[in-house]
Amino acid sequence: DGGITQSPKYLFRKEGQNVTLSCEQNLNHDAMYWYRQDPGQGLRLIYYSQIVNDFQKGDIAEGYSVSREKKESFPLTVTSAQKNPTAFYLCASSIPFANTGELFFGEGSRLTVL
Amino acid sequence: GNSVTQMEGPVTLSEEAFLTINCTYTATGYPSLFWYVQYPGEGLQLLLKATKADDKGSNKGFEATYRKETTSFHLEKGSVQVSDSAVYFCALSDNAGNMLTFGGGTRLMVKP
Residue B102 contacts by C-beta under 8 Å, 6 or more apart in sequence? Predict the structure, then answer.
């Protein structure tokens, strides 16, 4: 079945460590996105990529990095520079957009910093 | 810039009650409007959408009408079920249709 797979589902990290969250899609979508979700704050865009080997910062990119070497993969690294990394992270993909507006989301990864 | 404001939750209803979740927006131009739903432990999925003024989006008994004069896109359902318990997000797209701006989400809890 087509979809988006995020891993791991739960991740614990010590302060000062970098962690990488995986996002893979087999929908053949060109565009991919990373959002951060905090209680009561909705979704905030971290990074997005509309084509392989290209990506742009979203609203809260500081302390995060991404790569887009393959169409189906868009990993997110949470670096030690991110001051408050404990959150729920959602990856999404879409066909660049043609006004459909539909994003397809993975099930998310919950990161907890100990 | 674009912004979306939703009523704060949680909204707690009994089964078969009428549901309204308010959503208002600020945007330049003519955005498209969306409602997404997030069931416990899952990612978001598109519930319904409207692409121009006075359009009504509908799905699974939920409806929302794009009201340009009041810049609103309120979500309604005539009779909620326990299985509707979830977090609902209102969102809008920019004019190019490339990026979504989400509201803060409203948690709905339906009791039997």
Answer: A35, A42, A43, B4, B36, B89, B90, B91
Using only C-alpha atoms, chain B has a radius of gyration, in whole angstroms, of 13
| B16–chain A Cβ distance below 8 A for any pair | no
- Beta sheet of B56-59, edge-to-edge order: B19-21, B75-77, B62-65, B56-59
CA distance B98 to chain A (A): 6
Contact A77, A19 (CB under 8 A): yes
- For the segment A18-42, the average pLDDT, to the nearest whole number, is 91
Q: What is the pLDDT of residues B59-107, one digit of tens each?
A: 999 999 999 999 999 999 999 999 999 999 999 987 665 678 899 999 9
Mutate to test the interface with B, among A105, A107, A109, A110 (most CBs of B within 10 A): A105
Provide mean pLDDT across the span B20-25. 97
